[in-house]
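Weekly structure sync - notes
Attendees: PM, LS, DV (DV joined late)
Agenda: review two folding runs queued last week.

Item 1: First target. Sequence and structure tokens pasted below for the record.
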Amino acid sequence: MQADILCAAEIEKYLTKARKGNITVFDTVDSTNTVLKNLCAEGKARPGDCVIADCQTKGRGRRGRRFESEKEVGIYLSFLLGTGSATPEEISEITAWGAVAVRRATEKVCHADSRIKWVNDIVCGRMKICGILTEMTAAGPVMGIGINVNQTKDGFPPELRNIASSLRIVCKREFCRAQIIAAVIEELDLITESFPEKREEYLKEYRENSAVTGEDISIERGGEIKKGRAVGIAPNFGLEVIFENGEREIITGGEVSVKGFYPTNRVGME
């Protein structure tokens, strides 16, 4: 495969229809979310604008956790959605819509057999290939997406080799990142056009592709750990759980671990 160089012109080549937002590509930034949030604060961003970097020096996930952002192999992008202001609960739902969007895009381009690990990760098997972080700004929600595309197993740090995978590892071939980015952008444009009217469509797809439903989980909140089983996805995209004591609850936050998956993932709106 030829060198996979990112630029706006290359990405636009793969778009299937005209769009209004700007696509800006950087070689290296600290965090694409930080760059786009700053543009929003300065009044220089509009819905549909997308910031992409070949490398991030301070990529982060939920709760400020570090997100590995190696040069030339991954997709690191942030997108300003045109859904308007959102409550914390709506931000969680928008993140779930984003997971559906990324899964659609990677399925379309890569034919990857992926599922959604509640609430914000895409997995192949039980290994993570994508994480999503949505943050609210005065201009609207900024959705940050990191996708492992062309990493090899040896390319991950030792501590991640049993946690993370990539589209290349799963599908056994390399991919053009620009093509995947174009597909993701078009799916994110659809969220702006569809939220919240097509909630039932996205909820159905999220439920059909949930990697967590039917799995044993543990959740930590306020220093207390409770174990139970995930039995479904609620209409608000919360996780329906039946605990060992028989109590049933819709989870919208806390430290959630899924038995057999990679280590704990903190989610929620606190």
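Item 2: Second target, run right after the first with the same settings.
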Amino acid sequence: MYKKSSPLVIIISYIGIALLYIPLLFIALFSVNANRHGQTWGGFTFDWYVKLFSNDLVQQATLNSIILAVTSTIIATVFGTLLAIGIHRTPWNKKIRSFFDYSINIPVVTPDILMAIALVTVFGLFRTFLPCFEPGMLTLIISHVVFQLSFVVLVVLGRLSSIPKDQIEAARDLYATTSGAWFRVIFPQLLTGIIAGALLAFTLSLDDFIISFFVSGPTSQTLPLYIYGSLKRGISPEIHALSTLVITLTLGIMLLTLFYNQKKSKGRNK
């Protein structure tokens, strides 16, 4: 039995949610405001969205963001899943396992600005030998994989930890080989964690600004970078419209992840 929450806790909870989402609602509201200048309401319109989709710079930034997010997510998910399985399955001693745990968690808590400076320094060193490390799409993809990897590993490790260890032994008795046991028994259960990690990585890549700002080139501008550049000329309804689309896509991905995990959980409980 759960105790009833006090009215003060409930009020604080609602205030917290309001502080999170009211600014986003105002952005969405001004994206359909017919009044281009000022904060007064001038009527309802979708003209800013129409102008947005006819903007070549926005189209290129959108394409760059999608290519970057999809490519980096695939790479980070594959390597992150393999790394998580390796860490989980290998019988490390406590010191080595602690080393891996700290190594995986450090990039998550490291400020983005420090990660960006470190990546710029490394790319600068590589660039003296390999010209392909000039700021551009390649450096963006590598940088995003670097900060996505830890998140994927943590999500997949969490899912692996929830699978009983005796299942792999029972699966071996059924399918004889370790690979057969993993692909027939463990992997289907692990798939929810892999998909959740991939969706999280995709969202992080799509929304990233700081790291992308430091390692991108003139032909690899992403949507967050385009929004930042446009803000220097003042906030316009087109920026509100673009921000609304990015927010909607991000929330859609998170809701998709939640829905998928709930569906899988119900399926296992039946």
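Discussion on item 2: The chain has a mean pLDDT of 83.
Action: LS to circulate a short write-up before next sync.
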